[in-house]
Amino acid sequence: MVVVVLLAVAAVIVTRSSDKDRVSASSANSSGSAASTTEITTPAPGTSYIATAQVPDINVYDAPDAPTPIKTFENPWFINGDSKSPVPLVFSVREQQEDGWIEVLLPTGPIGSIGWVHTADVALSITRYHITVELGAHRLQAFDGDTVLLESTVAVGAPATPTPTGDYYIVAVLKAPSSDTQYGPYAFGLSGPSGGLEGFTGGDAEVGIHGNNDASVLGRDVSHGCVRMSNDGVTQLAAVLLLGTPVSITA
């Protein structure tokens, strides 16, 4: 798994994972930060679970009763294979079972890929944050529960390299050494491939959300598949969004 945004510059990995912000589970409904929990419960409306890997290798199965894994993910993983750029492995949780299994979105294509992991291999946290992107309206909204935290006009994929719709989550947050780049000060790597490119500047073509240095492109279909937003907006989000934050991109 490789995040391609910011490959043209040396980036700093921002490891703001859910276990950095654990509080008691009872406070999950009053705070946007993640709350740790080991109970098999349904999150309150406007919240979701994040699963953070606690073991070096996570086996993923296509069903709870499957005898062998279909995939194995390393924890941490590394941006472009660089051992100096470790990123905690996280998943967005779809379903929990009392028999020790969790259904999760996977940090790989095709978009919306799911699998099952052992509850014992992860730590569960609750987050109130989520993002929606409406391609036709060129609009990004970030929510804290049911409250709109930020609304931003965005640029999306050009006709030849469209931004693919689907359910994603944030797998990496990168900070540029300078905000004066075409990617802006921050970029969020998402859990899915770009629909328009096989590769981009030497890496796999992953969808991302990032800033930009040309405000005139906002509201237009001009990107290679990533979502471009204002530098002020992406900076605001980078301060609060956790790895594992759900992202929904719709037409």
Number of helical segments with 4 or more residues: 1
Q: If you average the pLDDT, what whole number results?
A: 83
Q: Which sequence of SSEs, written as H and E, runs from N to C?
A: EEEEEEEEEEEEEEEEEEEEEEHE
N-C termini distance? 25 Å
Largest sheet: 9 strands, mixed
CATH superfamily of the largest domain: L,D-transpeptidase catalytic domain-like
CATH architecture descriptor name of the largest domain: Beta Barrel
Share in β-strands: 35-45%
* CATH class wording of the largest domain: Mainly Beta
What's the total count of β strands? 23
Shape: globular
How large, in whole angstroms, is the Cα Rg?
Answer: 17 Å
Percent helix, as a range, is under 10%
Model regions low in confidence, pLDDT < 50 over at least 5 residues = 1-10, 19-33, 35-39, 196-203
Notes on the protein architecture:
This protein has 251 residues and is mainly β. It folds into two domains: 18-127, no CATH class; 129-250, L,D-transpeptidase catalytic domain-like (Beta Barrel), CATH 2.40.440.10. The protein contains one helix and 23 strands. The strands form six sheets. Strands 1, 12, 13, 14, 16, 17, 20, 22 and 23 form a nine-stranded mixed beta sheet that branches. A six-stranded antiparallel beta sheet has the order 2-11-3-8-9-10, with no helix packed on it. A hairpin with an 8-residue loop joins strand 9 and strand 10 (114-118). It is globular and about 55 Å long. The two termini are 25 Å apart.
